[in-house]
């Protein structure tokens, strides 16, 4: 019985039926299934299949984002249950992510945030047009070990360097691995400003994050 | 709404048709085929048997135009009607009868052999954008006399899609018919569910050769569709003005429809062609010239006005390598064909006028065709209201990527190309090897061929096809056919 619901949860993610994912997650809890079991045997396998289909060219960004959102929604139901049991879900890492000062471009950053979250990272999205100090404060507050900085413009990508400098000045540069991204950003730029990594797309960003802190 | 593209005013269409009728009475049409001359004379045309010229009165032509069907279908080997001739349906097949193949390694043209054509047939099977096969390469490893039927024999062993073909001789047509009958399971079955259509080509100006005329008559009598390929060469074998070249095309096609219908009333026949605007500098027949596209578009409108299915040779290039010229000419022609609503557009993969077939060009052309088909599918409301409910539910949030509305519609709204078209970031492109379209096309050809699935033709049928073909080969001095490549 439990297995059947978990299989259905997996399928609901793969078939892009977020409402079903939510209902089935509730049903599973009501049936007495352990939240960790729902995560590890229902949700995570679903996300893995969606990721594989995306990389095979069968799925596209909309299916990825819908599945990731559905996963997040289900996690919202499961977190209080985990908390009540004094359990935590396995976390790949904690991320603070945002678009740098002067830049209001959101899509790329949000996509990476969504996907990281779907792949087991705890994600703190600080939004767009974010100044260096806000990044520093949020990392201190959350104990994050990964920092994601997005910039879409050649004129704002220099702010990525300023954020890294702010972390050095605050003495917490070693606490985080810094990922930079955005249209004008290159491997070379990442190296120049002393970032730890760069990926050219959202899948690359997830892989790199797992490599850096996973 | 389907996007509309019209190149002729209704008045001009009418004038072209009237002048077409007039040409068939004076100077008449040359018909180098005795059976056709008899048919025309019996029907009441004034025939000069010495000069082999028929002067066809308008009423005979009008009757033929009425009895010719306005639509019909071609079937795949599973018996499904997958190609619809008629209306504004737009479908594509590879340009046919190329005499060279562009070698993928050397990028040079060379003489095609059995393996080359089989590879092309397999590739066409795997390309969803391409609707029909064509006997697209002439293999040089068999006697020239069986060049036509040998291509069909090879194709029938590897294809599922219907095929556009043609005969090079009068006698070989019968062997080709036997091959098709074997696959269809009988003459009646073939007529009911045709899997092939034969190109029949009048010679400009106003001439029916014995061979092609006989092919057309034989097709008509067996219920096998034929496709008129009239090819006025504007400024050389036809008048230079587009409208006048179309008048010539009209008269040639009218005479073809008439002979076809006199042979068998109701036989399916297509109003098609392969005209060109003669190049006044090089003396060549450019298929990538805008003037050529305009002649094709104009005669297609004439064919539609006469309620006949249509065909054109478009989407080709005169370039000798797969380069920018190759892409721009192929795209321009294919888009015009799609917008006008040509039922069967022959030309994918073809370059160097109509000389050469290229696998790489074929997979690039498939992307052009995908885009052209998307364009003519037009814009639809999809929802009622179109956007209000969705946009109000999201307010000012830019979260459309994660909406079910997006997942539901994106693949219908957007044509999604293969990796042949690069839309990655500069860095992503570099990481994949900074490949050009040619190199990506090479990768795509290899990837597609790996997905080819053998045709449903049984071993018994295969050996029957081989026996029929072998017999024809022997009569032209070839004791053993080349081995059939593996499925």
Strands, helices and their partners?
The complex is a heterodimer of chains A (214) and B (487).
Chain A: H1 2-14, H2 18-30, H3 35-55, H4 61-84, E1 93-99, H5 107-118, E2 121-125, H6 132-142, E3 146-150, H7 158-169, E4 177-181, H8 187-192, E5 197-198, H9 202-213
Helix pairs in contact in A: 1-2, 1-3, 2-4, 3-4, 4-5, 5-9, 6-7
Chain B: H1 10-25, E1 29-31, H2 34-43, E2 46-48, E3 53-55, H3 58-67, E4 72-75, E5 81-85, E6 91-94, E7 100-102, E8 109-110, H4 114-126, E9 133-134, H5 147-158, E10 163-165, H6 170-184, H7 187-192, E11 196-200, E12 207-208, H8 210-221, E13 226-228, E14 233-234, H9 242-263, E15 269-270, E16 276-277, H10 290-305, E17 311-313, H11 324-340, E18 344-348, E19 350-351, E20 356-357, H12 359-377, H13 388-394, H14 404-413, H15 426-431, H16 437-449, H17 459-475
Parallel strand pairs in B: 1-12, 6-18, 7-20, 9-10, 10-11, 11-13, 13-15, 14-16, 17-18
Antiparallel strand pairs in B: 1-3, 2-3, 4-5, 7-8, 19-20
Helix pairs in contact in B: 1-9, 1-10, 2-9, 3-9, 4-5, 5-6, 5-17, 6-17, 8-9, 9-10, 10-11, 11-12, 12-16
Helical content of chain B stands at 40-55%
The number of helical segments of chain B is 17
Q: How many individual β-strands of chain A?
A: 5
Q: N-to-C SSE series of chain A?
A: HHHHEHEHEHEHEH
Give the low-confidence spans of chain A: none
Give the count of structural domains of chain A: 2
Q: In which order are the strands of the major sheet of chain B placed?
A: 9-10-11-13-15
> What does the average pLDDT of chain A come to?
92
The CATH fourth-level homologous superfamily of the largest domain in chain B: Trimethylamine methyltransferase-like
Strands of chain B, total number: 20
The biggest beta sheet of chain A reads: 5 strands, parallel
Tally of discrete structural domains of chain B: 2
Query: Spatial order of the strands in the main sheet of chain A?
Result: 2-1-3-4-5
The CATH homologous superfamily of the largest domain in chain A: Cobalamin-binding domain
């Amino acid at each position: 019985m439990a297995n059947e619901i978990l299989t259905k949860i997996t399928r609901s993610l793969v078939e892009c039926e977020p409402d079903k994912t939510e209902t089935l997650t509730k049903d599973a809890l009501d049936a007495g299934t352990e939240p960790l079991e729902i995560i590890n045997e229902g949700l995570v396998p679903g996300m893995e299949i969606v990721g594989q289909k995306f990389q095979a060219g069968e799925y596209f960004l909309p299916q990825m984002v819908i599945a990731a959102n559905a996963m997040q929604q289900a996690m919202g139901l499961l977190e209080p249950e985990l908390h009540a049991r004094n359990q935590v879900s396995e976390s790949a890492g904690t991320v603070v992510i945002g678009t740098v000062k002067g830049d209001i471009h959101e899509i790329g950053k949000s996509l990476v945030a969504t996907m990281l979250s779907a792949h087991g990272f705890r994600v703190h999205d600080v939004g767009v047009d974010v100044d260096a100090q806000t990044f520093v404060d949020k990392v201190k507050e959350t104990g994050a070990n990964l920092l994601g900085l997005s910039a879409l413009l050649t004129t704002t990508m220099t702010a990525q360097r300023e954020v890294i400098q702010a972390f050095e000045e605050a003495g917490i540069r070693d606490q985080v691995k810094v990922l930079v991204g955005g249209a004008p950003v290159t491997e070379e730029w990442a190296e120049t400003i002393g970032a730890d990594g760069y990926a050219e797309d959202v899948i690359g960003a997830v892989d790199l994050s797992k490599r850096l802190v996973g | 709404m389907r996007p509309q593209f019209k190149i002729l005013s209704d008045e001009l269409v009418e004038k072209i048709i009237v002048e077409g009728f007039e040409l068939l009475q004076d100077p008449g049409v040359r018909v180098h085929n005795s059976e056709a001359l008899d048919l025309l004379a019996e029907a009441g045309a004034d025939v000069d048997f010495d000069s082999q010229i028929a002067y066809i009165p308008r009423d005979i032509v009008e009757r033929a135009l009425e009895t010719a069907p306005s639509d019909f279908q071609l079937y795949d080997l599973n018996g499904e009607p997958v190609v619809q001739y008629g209306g504004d349906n737009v479908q594509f097949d590879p340009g046919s009868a190329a005499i060279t193949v562009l070698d993928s390694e050397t990028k040079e043209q060379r003489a095609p052999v059995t393996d080359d054509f089989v590879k092309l047939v397999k590739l066409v099977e795997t390309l969803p954008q391409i609707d029909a096969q064509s006997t697209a390469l002439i293999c040089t490893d068999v006697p020239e006399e069986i060049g036509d039927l040998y291509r069909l024999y090879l194709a029938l062993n590897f294809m599922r899609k219907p095929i556009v073909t043609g005969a090079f001789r009068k006698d070989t047509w019968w062997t080709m018919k036997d091959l098709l009958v074997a696959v269809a399971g009988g003459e009646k079955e073939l007529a009911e569910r045709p899997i092939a259509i034969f190109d029949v080509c009048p010679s400009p100006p106003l001439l029916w050769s014995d061979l092609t005329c006989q092919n057309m008559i034989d097709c008509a009598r067996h219920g096998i569709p034929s496709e008129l390929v009239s090819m006025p060469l504007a400024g050389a074998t036809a008048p230079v003005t587009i409208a006048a070249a179309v008048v010539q095309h009209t008269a040639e096609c009218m005479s073809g429809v008439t002979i076809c219908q006199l042979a068998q009333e109701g036989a399916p026949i297509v109003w098609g062609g392969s005209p060109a605007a003669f190049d006044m500098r090089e003396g060549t027949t450019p298929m990538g010239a805008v003037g050529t596209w305009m002649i094709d578009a104009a005669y297609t409108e004439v064919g539609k006005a006469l309620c006949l299915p249509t065909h054109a040779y478009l989407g080709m290039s005169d370039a000798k390598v797969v380069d920018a010229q190759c892409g721009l000419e192929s795209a321009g022609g294919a888009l015009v064909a799609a917008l006008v609503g040509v039922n069967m557009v022959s030309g994918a993969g073809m370059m160097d006028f109509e000389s050469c077939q290229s696998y790489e060009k074929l997979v690039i052309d498939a992307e052009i065709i995908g885009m052209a088909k998307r364009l003519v599918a037009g814009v639809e409301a999809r929802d009622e209201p179109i956007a209000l409910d969705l946009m109000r539910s999201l307010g000012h949030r830019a979260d459309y990527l994660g909406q079910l509305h997006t997942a539901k519609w994106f693949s219908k709204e957007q044509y999604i190309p293969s990796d042949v078209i690069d839309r990655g970031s500069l860095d992503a492109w570099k990481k994949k090897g900074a490949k050009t379209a040619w190199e990506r096309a090479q990768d795509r050809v290899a990837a597609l061929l790996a997905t080819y699935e053998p045709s449903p033709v049984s071993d018994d049928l295969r050996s029957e096809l081989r026996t029929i073909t072998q017999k024809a080969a022997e009569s032209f001095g070839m004791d053993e056919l080349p081995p059939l490549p593996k499925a």
